[in-house]
């Protein structure tokens, strides 16, 4: 009889694990459980909010596509996992598994910020991105404040402690807003202030990448405020924990990240509700449960690229458990992202400064922008599949050769 693999979440991590293991369809039956009938490509949401990209181009329709490939798709929201009984509870249904992949991402906790619902904007979800797009249509210039709120993590597993798990979108939004305001002749009557809860902006990369961004911010008059923990937003300012504030006609926020409650309710979380795993992405207590992507306590920073790396490790670990391979891929996290800057500009960042500290590259070039556009198109039309690994490896090799590592 075929073994049952159940995947919770059809985002970067869940889909990658599925597509990796799909070649063993003769041995496994797959069920994907997802809250929506589409997979949301979050990295494209700043383009929806600021450049007017149609939101449907970020919502990859997967329900019928997966069904056509012989994958069971359950539309619904997981409420609980019973790890002792090997079953997942979705609405009123119970779905059994032999292997479970937990990949529901992180919840963006807008309600943790006082005044957010009335006065705040964001790019982290499709609804929020569209709301910001509508706001920008009638923004005549003024004080713009952009930043990430503080998130909290446990130290149960060995992972760098970050105050903001994903500041890339802050970088994108500040440069894209700068470009938009200039293009519309509103830059002179506007200020752009950026804040971070960290001691430095972009805690997850090294000095080289950080300094490249800092230099462009300075040239463009974008001011940085460090050690600022957001507590509230009003109609005219953002307020920080230390009692200070910044004037804000428009506040664009990356809210705190938190783990969905069903993890803690199922007894599978660490003391902050994230899933603790070993470096093969296997749960520290259960041999047949894996976690990949933002939900995994080892995912720091919380990036699609790290979700993909973890999915590759987890797939190979399951293959090893099933005697289909001898080797489990090693977990080698790194930051790899392309920060859109509006117009024909982007910065590509490739850095493992937080981990092995071998490379820390930032490449400001129109070619990076072209790469971002082609990645988004490919990801959308290929239903969440990525370019083949060898292309990525060649590309990373070329970048390291060009920049000599640091
Ligand atoms: C604005 C923005 C820009 C970003 N840019 C980049 C970038 O340039 N590069 C990069 O590498 N990363 C980027 N990231 C981070 C990246 O989007 C995330 O790290 C990545 O999406 C995490 O993948 P995941 O599979 O863990 O979760 P997700 O992609 O969030 O997918 C989780 C899935 O699980 C489903 N789900 C959740 N709860 C349940 C439940 N209870 N039951 C059923 N289904 C559920 C959701 O509907 C969703 O489909 C960005 C993030 C944001 C917000």
Descriptive notes:
By secondary structure, the chain is of the alpha/beta class. It folds into three domains: about 5-45 and about 60-105 and about 260-320, FAD/NAD(P)-binding domain (3-Layer(bba) Sandwich), CATH 3.50.50.60; about 110-255, 3-Layer(bba) Sandwich (FAD/NAD(P)-binding domain); about 335-405, no CATH class. Helices cover about 30% and strands about 25% of the residues. The chain is built from eleven helices and 23 strands. It has helices at about 10-20, 45-50, 65-70, 115-120, 125-135, 170-185, 205-220, 260-265, 305-320, 365-380, 390-405, and strands spanning about 5-10, 30-35, 40, 60, 70-75, 80, 85-90, 95, 100, 105-110, 120, 145-150, 190-195, 220-225, 230-235, 235-240, 245, 250-255, 255-260, 290, 335-340, 345-350, 360-365. The strands form seven sheets. Strands 5-2-1-9-20 form a five-stranded parallel β-sheet. Strands 11-18-12-13-14 form a five-stranded parallel β-sheet. Strands 6-7-8 form a three-stranded antiparallel β-sheet. Strand 1, helix 1 (about 10-20) and strand 2 (about 30-35) form a beta-alpha-beta unit. Helix 1 packs parallel to helix 9 (about 305-320) and helix 2 (about 45-50) runs parallel beside helix 5 (about 125-135). The radius of gyration is 21 Å and the shape is globular. The mean pLDDT is about 95. Flavin-adenine dinucleotide binds near residues 11, 123, 168 and 337.
């Amino acid at each position: 009889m075929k073994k049952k693999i159940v995947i919770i979440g059809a985002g970067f991590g869940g889909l990658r694990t599925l597509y990796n293991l799909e070649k063993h369809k003769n041995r496994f039956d797959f069920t994907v459980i997802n809250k929506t009938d589409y997979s949301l490509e979050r990295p494209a949401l700043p383009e929806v909010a600021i450049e007017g990209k149609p939101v449907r181009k970020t919502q990859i329709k997967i329900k019928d596509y997966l069904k056509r490939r012989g994958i069971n798709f359950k539309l619904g929201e997981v409420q609980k996992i019973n790890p002792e009984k090997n079953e997942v509870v979705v609405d009123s249904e119970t779905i059994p598994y032999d292997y479970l992949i937990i990949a529901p991402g992180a919840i963006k906790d807008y309600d943790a910020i006082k005044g957010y619902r009335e006065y705040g904007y964001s790019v982290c979800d499709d609804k929020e991105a569209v709301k910001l797009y509508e706001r920008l249509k009638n923004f005549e210039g003024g004080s713009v404040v952009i930043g990430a709120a503080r998130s909290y993590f446990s130290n149960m597993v060995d992972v760098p402690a970050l105050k903001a798990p994903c500041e890339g979108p802050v970088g994108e939004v500040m440069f894209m807003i700068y470009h938009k305001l200039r293009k519309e002749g509103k830059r002179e009557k506007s200020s752009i202030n950026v804040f971070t809860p960290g001691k430095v902006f972009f805690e997850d990369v090294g000095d080289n990448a950080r300094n490249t961004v800092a230099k462009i911010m300075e040239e463009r008059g974008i001011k940085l405020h460090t050690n600022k923990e957001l507590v509230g937003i009003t109609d005219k300012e953002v307020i920080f924990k230390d009692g200070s504030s910044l004037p804000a006609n428009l506040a664009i926020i990356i809210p705190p990240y938190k783990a969905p409650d069903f993890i803690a309710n199922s007894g599978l979380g660490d003391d902050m509700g994230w899933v603790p795993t070993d470096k093969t992405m296997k749960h520290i207590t259960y041999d047949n449960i894996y976690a990949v992507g933002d939900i995994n306590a080892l995912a720091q920073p919380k990036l699609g690229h790290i979700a993909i790396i973890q999915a590759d490790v987890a797939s190979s670990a399951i293959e090893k458990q099933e005697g289909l391979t001898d080797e489990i891929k090693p977990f080698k996290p790194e930051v790899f992202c392309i920060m859109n800057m509006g117009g024909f500009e982007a910065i590509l960042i490739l850095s493992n400064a937080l981990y092995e500290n071998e490379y820390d590259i930032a490449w400001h070039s129109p070619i990076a922008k072209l790469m971002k556009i082609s990645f988004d198109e490919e990801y959308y039309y290929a239903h969440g599949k990525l370019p083949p690994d060898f292309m990525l490896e060649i590309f990373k090799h070329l970048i390291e050769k060009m920049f000599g590592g640091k």
